[in-house]
């Protein structure tokens, strides 16, 4: 819990081995509901998220947790037209809310992790295929949360009956460090038949760098030549760059160069041929 200053109360943290034996004791103050959400949507306690700091709240004070709980339910599109009194009025009402979460929260656990592998400076695209085996059209509302390096092709997706649809996600990485995002397909119930909400984790893995520009210079051997290199920053703020120079020797003969071009895809290099002065 990133919002828990001074350390979180361990008794309020999530525990997958925990058994609920008293609905009133565990859910009357709404902390139990927050734990359920936290156990399925693990990033909901980050700074700026609805449940940030909920583990610092005192048990028994449901009014304190109510705004956080309502905001989390709204963000997860699970809100109900109920009041705090409706939720905590009786054991029956608590059980109905727990059942509502039981039917919806598992869909918010990411199905898989989609890895974007490629070079820095090169757009990396991935297609996610969704199938609709039913005989009615299914419509999704699409959200992409996390790093802005990821972009989605649209904010909605419609899948025709007994068919599939492909959704495109593009990564334009600005840094070598991994970037993370979450792609969610929210099932729209207004269209009649409702599918299940689907969630995917997105992560980048940069394996190389693509040159932004190639500068060719012709000069004589042992002749000094100076030239300027223009550096353009893609960032909206001031940036400090470290400069390093890597020198790569070219083949000594034309034959070596042609052989290297032929086997470049294998990653092997041909040793330069011996030449007589």
What's a quick, concise take on this entry?
21% of the residues lie in helices and 22% in strands.
For this entry, give a set of tags.
277 residues; Immunoglobulin-like; 2 domains; 6 helices; 21% helix; disordered C terminus; PapD-like_sf
Could you describe the 3D structure shown?
With 277 residues, the protein is an alpha+beta fold. The protein folds into two domains: 10-106, no CATH class; 113-209, Immunoglobulin-like, CATH 2.60.40. It is built from six helices and eight strands. The chain has helices at 23-27, 31-40, 62-75, 84-88, 91-104, 254-262; strands at residues 113-120, 124-132, 138-146, 150-152, 156-159, 163-171, 180-187, 198-209. Strands 1-8-7-3-5 form a five-stranded mixed β-sheet, with no helix packed on it. The termini are far apart. The relative contact order is 0.10.
């Amino acid at each position: 819990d990133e919002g828990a200053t001074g350390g979180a109360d361990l008794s309020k943290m999530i525990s997958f081995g925990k058994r609920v034996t008293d609905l009133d004791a565990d859910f009357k103050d709404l902390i139990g509901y927050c734990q359920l959400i936290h156990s399925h949507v693990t990033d909901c306690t980050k700074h700026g998220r609805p449940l940030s700091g909920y583990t610092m709240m005192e048990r028994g004070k449901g009014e304190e947790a109510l705004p956080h709980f309502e905001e989390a339910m709204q963000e997860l599109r699970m809100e109900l037209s109920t009041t705090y009194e409706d939720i905590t009025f009786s054991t029956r009402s608590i059980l109905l809310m727990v059942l509502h979460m039981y039917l919806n929260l598992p869909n918010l656990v990411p199905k898989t992790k989609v890895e974007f592998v490629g070079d820095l400076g090169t757009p990396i695209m991935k297609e996610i295929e969704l199938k609709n085996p039913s005989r009615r059209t299914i419509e999704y509302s699409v959200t992409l949360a996390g790093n802005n390096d990821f972009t989605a092709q649209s904010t909605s997706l419609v899948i025709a009956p007994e068919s599939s649809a492909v959704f495109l996600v593009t990564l334009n990485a600005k840094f070598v460090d991994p970037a993370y995002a979450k792609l969610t397909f929210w099932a729209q119930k207004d269209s009649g038949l409702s599918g299940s909400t689907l969630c995917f984790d997105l992560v980048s893995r940069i394996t190389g760098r693509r040159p932004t520009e190639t500068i060719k210079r012709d000069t004589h051997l042992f002749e000094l030549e100076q030239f300027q290199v223009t550096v353009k920053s893609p960032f909206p703020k001031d940036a400090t760059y470290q400069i390093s120079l890597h020198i790569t020797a070219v083949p000594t003969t034309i034959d070596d160069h042609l052989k290297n071009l032929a086997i470049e895809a294998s990653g092997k290099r041909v040793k330069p041929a011996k030449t007589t002065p």
